[in-house]
Specification:
Elements (H helix, E strand, L loop, with lengths): L16 H7 L4 H14 L8 H8 L8 H10 L40 H8 L11 H13 L16 H14 L5 H21 L5 H17 L4 H24 L3 H18 L2 H17 L3 H15 L5 H17 L3 H16 L15 H14 L3 H14 L5 H17 L3 H14 L6 H14 L6 H9 L5
Helix pairs in contact: 2-3, 2-4, 5-6, 5-8, 8-9, 8-10, 9-10, 10-11, 10-12, 11-12, 12-13, 12-14, 13-14, 14-15, 14-16, 16-17, 16-18, 17-18, 18-19, 18-20, 19-20, 19-21
């Protein structure tokens, strides 16, 4: 989870004339007020102002985040985002508009990891399909694309396949005569981050990790190849760091904690070299999450606090809220209820400040549902199963359907909390719903949570609902 703001400014599409027509005769400020009113009608909270409307109309915001999407669709029934002049979400997932000073900006969706191969294929004019079964095929396509991409030939050895031996032998010659890395290569890395995050949101980590790791090695080879332009170098550092976090998350979610720790450390080192506090905050955020799951709660607290220091001047209360929740999780793991409650209170206060243009795109998953889910995990760690189940239930109810993995995660959390309360029928029902969601989702972490629920339910195995749940569990559970 989710994975510093992302990659880069990306290409501009030109003014959004369709959205300008929707504004009609209203001024930008009047239209922004109408957006805020519409948001309140459907229970959303957006910090829309005339500046935001201007950025949309100028084409700076290619796709709104999920909160704005719901508001706009409410305001203009029958219109799609593309009818309003926005780009398809898949084309911008993870893009961040960052200033040269490293501040966060932009307003798109986030998610977690896929394939640099895939991205370069897209950059060369091919069509990319979101289909996990095509990963091996995409790897071969990417290898061929790298062979025609100047200094990117350095990375061909990373992708294996029938031509790998020849690629490896040819790489030094190709690299020595190639031009330096430019905008097209930087954009390919950025698009890799978006596609990886999209696939993770929908399918989970287990089937993606290996190929995403190939992409990461290629990205760092591009970074090592060098560039004459500082702007391109900044984009490559940010993109490679984001890719390292995304691959680290895939390792984390698929139970490869040692690999995840290494990838997060790589991202942190990249952030320090590039002087990128947003990337540093992101790396610490994921490091804290991993430490909690790996039963190193004190490290989780320290990493989360370091992330808050890195993020304090970035202008995103939501980012600080998430980092504070990571700290709360560490305190819960240490059994310090007082410190945990204090951190949860700070996290809620920061979350209540609302979204802003400074929120990084990778955080689009972080809404009220995630806030409730992370709080549920804190109470669970403290053994307060009643409060844990209450917040887990809210998390499931509030979750955006786009985030299939997170819906499965919170439902599995609810099953475990209910089972710990000795409420077998409700727990089995939640467990069965989580299993149904796991059809398209491959997550070792979620399966482990369901195993925990199953162990708590086995004393009630004679009850019909429990027997049905246990009977549908994979044999490994």
């Amino acid at each position: 989870m989710a994975s510093s703001p992302s990659a880069s400014r990306g290409s501009r599409r030109g003014p959004n004339t369709a959205f300008r027509r929707l504004r009609g005769t209203l001024s930008p400020g009047e239209f922004a007020a109408a957006v805020r009113r519409s948001a309140r009608e459907i229970g959303e909270q957006v910090s829309c102002d005339a500046r935001y409307i201007g950025r949309v109309e100028a084409g700076e915001i290619q796709c709104p985040n999920y909160a704005y999407e719901r508001v706009f669709l409410h305001m203009f029934p029958g219109y799609s985002l593309m009818d309003m002049g926005f780009a398809p979400r898949e084309s911008v997932r993870g893009r961040a508009a960052r200033t040269q000073k490293g501040a966060l900006g932009g307003d798109d969706a986030p998610i977690h990891p896929v394939l640099l191969q895939t991205e370069i294929r897209t950059a060369r004019g091919h069509h990319w399909r979101i289909d996990c079964s095509k990963i091996d095929e995409e790897s071969d396509v990417l290898r061929r694309a790298f062979m025609t991409s100047g200094s990117a030939a350095l990375a061909t050895v990373s992708f294996g396949g029938p031509a790998a031996g020849k690629a490896s032998a040819a790489a030094p010659t190709a690299a020595s005569s190639a031009r330096r890395v430019g905008d097209s290569e930087a954009e390919a890395v950025e698009r890799a981050v978006r596609h990886i995050r999209l696939l993770d949101d929908r399918h989970g980590a287990d089937g993606l990790y290996k190929r995403a790791g190939d992409s990461l090695r290629a990205a760092y080879e591009l970074l090592d190849a060098g560039t004459h332009r500082r702007a391109v170098s900044d984009r490559l550092h940010a993109g490679a760091g984001e890719l390292a976090i995304s691959v680290g998350w895939l390792a984390h979610d698929s139970g490869r904690f040692g690999d995840a720790r290494s990838h997060y450390a790589e991202a942190l080192a990249t952030a320090r070299v590039a002087g990128d506090p947003a990337l540093e905050a992101h790396a610490f955020c994921n490091t804290a999450f991993l430490a909690r799951d790996a039963d190193r709660p004190r490290e989780a607290v320290r990493a989360a606090q370091a992330g808050q220091q890195a993020a304090k001047h970035l202008g995103s209360a939501r980012l600080l809220s998430l980092l504070t929740l990571r700290e709360a999780g560490g305190w819960a793991g240490l059994g310090d209820r007082t410190a945990c409650e204090e951190a949860l209170s700070r996290a809620h206060t920061l979350f209540g400040s609302g979204p802003s243009d400074a929120d990084p795109e990778w955080m689009s998953f972080f809404g009220e549902a995630e806030l409730e889910g992370l709080e549920a995990q804190c109470w669970s760690a403290l053994g307060d199963w009643g409060r844990a189940a209450e917040h887990a239930r809210r998390a499931v109810a509030l979750q955006d359907p786009h985030f299939v993995r997170n819906t499965a995660l919170f439902t599995a959390e609810l099953a475990g909390d209910l089972a710990a309360q000795r409420r077998p029928d409700e727990a089995a029902d939640a467990g069965s719903r989580a299993l149904a969601l796991l059809g398209p989702v491959q997550s070792t972490r979620i399966r482990a949570m369901l195993e925990t629920a199953a162990k708590r339910l086995r004393p009630f195995a004679e009850e019909r609902s429990v027997a049905a749940f246990l009977g549908h569990l994979p044999r490994t559970a």
